[in-house]
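Page 42, continued from yesterday. The earlier attempt failed because a stray header line got pasted into the input along with the sequence. Redoing it now with the clean sequence only.
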Amino acid sequence: LAAMLAGAVALYLREGVPGAPDMPLAERFAAADAAYRDRPSQAEAEAAAPARPAPDLSQADPEYLTMIDQLRDAVGRNPDDQQGLALLASNEMRLGNLAAARAAQQRLVDLRGDQADAVQLMQLATLMVDAAGGVVTPEAEAVLRRALTLDPTQPQARYLQGVLLIQNGRPDRAFPLWRGLLDEGPEGAPWIAPIRAAIQDLAWLAGDDEYRAPAPPAADLPGPDADALAAAEDLSPEDRARMIQDMVDRLQQRLATQGGSPEEWARLIAALAMLDQRDQATAILTEARQRFGSAPDALAPIERAATEAGLDG
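This time it went through. Structure tokens are written below.
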């Protein structure tokens, strides 16, 4: 769900500002306040949201699907069973039946009332935002506010709070929130990837054009690292080239669609040079220099990779 919401955020950050006339700060805040007040209700946003195709369950385990049908029947017979509702909501979400997941989670939260915990509230808010086509409506915000009152550190709720601020023209408030989440990690958390994809643009919109996102741990960088390249030396030339090409293709696709850290660009340049794709490596180097040229520290690993690959000049 975090990845789904990230698409709308990335699109706003890429297309929502270029070409717009400059505005004094007071006018920007006034416009942001107006956008915040004029948000559609949950019902309006759901009515306007594009229809989502039914999930493809052709590859799902038949026994698992049978168990889910039995769970649905059990909850239907006992709609006040909180444990059954929690299981049903999580499993419907896993299957991609988000409308059913939202209904079960809403019922669970309604039954628990003031006893609903921060995670249950966050899950409901996330499903409401998804049903609204990515819009954080006033109703979803109210659920988020309850979650954050109970647990101000709840990371998924803070991520959605950042989405809300971005949607309503307050990158200055969203940036420190998402920066904190990125610094806290963990790297494998589902909200980290969409934050990494947007944080550089968000920092610029917030007025911090010197910010550089910390590189992910080396073990988490996509693409072939030094150990992988060394291991490939033991393979036949054909298998080695095939292995490296597969990793390079995945890394190149990720950088093209989501962006990445200077270390990831450096790794791509080194791998392309090893594959003797020097024209492509040079093109990537040129693009990386344009992207990170204003920050010598960020450009340093890219220039080292270029030197080691013999791509200087």
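Notes: The first helix runs from residue 2 to 15.
Reminder to self: strip header lines before submitting.
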